[in-house]
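Budget justification aside, the reviewers requested a transparent look at the raw inputs and outputs of the sequence design task funded under Objective 1. We therefore reproduce one unedited record. The lines immediately below are the structure tokens for a 205-residue chain.
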């Protein structure tokens, strides 16, 4: 679904491959940034894959909290007691998947995640969270922990909850954009240089 303030795709009525691959990727990333702001966007919830201790992939949905297209950095929040936190502490590599069905646009990003919990960064974000969002971190049991039904709603205090609240920042190293198009799908891959530069090229879909 697309929101009313979603940036239009400049390549919708023509072959995007008539333009530089970097422009195509930038337009897709602008769309992802707007998805972070708009709760109704398909890009508001993304899949994020990590590596389990056994080497197997682990995948789950998270809310995309912010996306900065220039540095290609995105933010999501989690609980430091979760499996994904342990996995990312062991190996910072992660991959995200987003698909906007209305725009027929798939974005895949690979990069490394920095975890911020119980520090100045997480405290600043915590202060700006609405009460409902803070409640998520008040469960007495760690996410994924086996528990009897009668204890499932037990809570901890807000100070302790804040210590579990984690801001996760993923910095992209690779971006892969696929646009489904009746006249021929179009796909481009970009590699970031860490300084705002992007080397991009078209690939066969
Ligand atoms: C729509 C949706 C949004 C979600 N958003 C988040 C989120 O922002 N952060 C989070 O940690 N888990 C979120 N979850 C829950 C995760 O998908 C997952 O079930 C949970 O975090 C445990 O994952 P883990 O055991 O791999 O750490 C969301 C689930 C759904 C269905």
């Amino acid at each position: 679904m697309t929101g009313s303030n979603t940036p239009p795709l400049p390549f919708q009525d023509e072959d995007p491959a008539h333009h530089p691959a970097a422009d195509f990727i930038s337009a897709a990333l602008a769309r992802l940034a707007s998805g972070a702001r708009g709760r109704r966007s398909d890009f508001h919830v993304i899949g994020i894959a990590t590596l389990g201790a056994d080497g197997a992939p682990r995948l789950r949905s998270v809310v995309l909290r912010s996306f900065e297209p220039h540095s290609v950095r995105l933010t999501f929040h989690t609980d430091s007691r979760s499996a994904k936190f342990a996995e990312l502490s062991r190996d910072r590599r992660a991959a995200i998947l987003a698909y906007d069905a209305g725009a027929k646009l798939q974005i895949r990003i690979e990069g490394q995640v920095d975890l911020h919990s119980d520090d100045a960064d997480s405290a600043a974000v915590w202060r700006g969270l609405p009460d409902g969002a803070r409640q998520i971190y008040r469960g007495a049991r760690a996410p994924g922990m086996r528990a009897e039904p009668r204890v499932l709603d037990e809570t901890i205090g807000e100070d302790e909850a804040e210590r579990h609240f984690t801001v996760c920042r993923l910095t992209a190293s690779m971006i892969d954009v696929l646009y489904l198009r009746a006249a021929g799908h179009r796909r481009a891959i970009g590699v970031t240089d860490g300084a705002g530069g992007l080397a991009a090229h078209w690939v066969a879909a």
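The pocket of flavin mononucleotide is lined by residues 45, 58, 60-63, 76-79, 82-84, 143-144 (CB under 6 Å). The chain has one domain: 17-203. Computational costs for records of this kind are itemized in the attached budget.
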